[in-house]
Amino acid sequence: MAVLVLAEHSNDALNDVTAKTVVAAQAFGGDIDVLVAGHNAGAAAQAAAKIPGVRKVLHAEGAAFSHALAEAVEALVVPLMAGYDAFFAPATTTGKNVTPRIAAKLDVMQISEITKVLDTSTFERPIYAGNAIMTVKSGDAKKVVTVRGTAFQAAAGAGSAAVETIAAPAGPFKATFISEELQKSDRPELASAKRVVSGGRALASAEQFNQYILPLADKLGAGVGASRAAVDAGYAPNDFQVGQTGKVVAPELYVAIGISGAIQHLAGMKDSKVIVAINKDEEAPIFQIADYALVGDLFKIVPELTSKL
Amino acid sequence: MKVLVPVKRVIDPNVRPRVKADGSGVDLANIKMAMNPFCEIAVEEAVRMKEKGVVTEIVLISIGPAQAQETIRIGLAMGGDRGILVQTDVAVEPLAVAKILAKIVEAEQPGLVITGKQAIDDDANQTGQMLAALLGWPQGAFASAIAKDGEKLSVTREVDGGLQTVSLELPAVVTTDLRLNEPRFASLPNIMKAKKKVIDTKSPADYGVDVTPRLTVVKVAEPKKREAGEKVADVDALIAKLKSVGAI
Question: Are B129 and A173 in contact (CB < 8 Å)?
Fold first, then answer.
């Protein structure tokens, strides 16, 4: 048995969700190889070789891989799968974009965002915005899955896998990268932050979001999140959104400020270890899942909390 | 350019799903159903493209039980031109949906397929990408902006960390993210007009697609419940509590 794991990286750095995906692949069993497809991604390949439990790293270079275009990654991975029993990718936007293409080409059903590996054909995954947990058994010859990073702990220690350079298809592909606009932030990345401070509609403006949420996040060394309402209203950028269709987080501490707690938001944070809710509406659904609930005016509470920490 | 828009009938997003006591699934009996919110965004985008003169015809497709016809009617009332219902009582998985859609694409020859990024019931986020792969077409998944640029399509995608813009050769598949648009409500006159629009009823067998599930549902369970929390009186009490559990 052998598993191919797709690395999530930014060419010069490896995202730690890759190590978590390797842990999920270990639960599946067999030899684990990590594929780093990128452009000048030597540093990411070296970092992948240090993940414990990895047999070898396959390093493919090409301009089309610099932004992980689905068409290029599919062309690279599908032939490689002749030598593997399973393909594991992190359930990031890159993994979600690419993996179903690979599954369809292999004529297998993908199993999305697994949270547990029970055996080599059985997996658990949340459905209905996390309101139900489904156990599914796959009858397909090869298993293609995406892994919810927050459900697995990266293993400690360091590996020393060999890095093998492999040939990559050069294209041309029917899709080309034009540009990207990434949020620059010195704060911890939302999906892997140990603490997250999130703001909702009650912040009422982008200025107040920045004025109240950011200092508290900085004080806690936390990542910053937002509800859909806050994002739709333009108080925070799209990729801050926590929820069913945004990011799924499971930090040690999640502070929900001015967030009512719609089903879709809870789907993205209800596995957090400690949840604090600050809301003036005593009936807000967020209080049903909060460990510590503070009812009151966030514009008074949040500055006080920030100054007292 | 003709556009195909697949639409899915799902549980209403505001309804809290209940797991059946026997663990066989989620109880959908007498539950309010609706068009998947991402599919509404897909229909809206197609209608806007038609209003701009970029699109000539919008064909809505739903695969599911007879009631999925209601979902197509909603899309027709929003501005779709005609519908295709592929009727089956089997819960069709994304791979089989993609195969049926690929056959319909072959017959209809659209320039673009717009799907939602995910259905809020199975949360799979696969169908659009699978369809693109089966057709050998490029994909613009999680789109927050679409613009036709000559013979190409410029798609801005919501990715972790920000936005990415790609250029796709047409024909292509695009999947919609929340920020693409604000879907319109169907007006009563349009709902009445939509009743006259044609919906063809087909079956998966008409397309030669085997819809037998590849995944067997072993069980469906309630997620682990969180223990009840407590109300704290003020900021000092909150800080004390967080310190006592080691959260800060």
Answer: no
**Two tokens, residue A179:** 């540009």
Residue at token pair 């048995």: A1
pLDDT tens per residue, range A79-120: 999 999 999 999 999 999 999 999 999 999 999 999 999 999
Rounded Cα–Cα distance for residues A75 and A214 (Å)? 42
Q: Name the strands in the sheet holding A132-138, side by side, starting at the edge strand that comes first in the sequence.
A: A116-117, A122-127, A132-138, B215-221
Tens digit of each residue's pLDDT (9 = 90 or more) over B76-95: 999 999 999 999 999 999 99
Residue B197 Cα, gap to closest chain A Cα (Å)? 32
Q: Could you give the CA distance from residue B45 to residue B222 in angstroms, rounded to a whole number?
A: 36
> What's chain B's length in residues?
248
Q: Name the residue with tokens 């090869």.
A: A142
Tokens at A120, concatenated = 């080599």
Contact of B162 with B177, CB cutoff 8 Å: no
Mutate to test the interface with A, among B214, B220, B239 (most CBs of A within 10 A): B214
Please report the beta strands in chain B, taking only residues with DSSP state E, as ranges in sequence order. 2-6, 9-11, 33-35, 57-64, 82-87, 112-116, 139-149, 152-159, 162-169, 172-176, 199-202, 215-221, 230-231
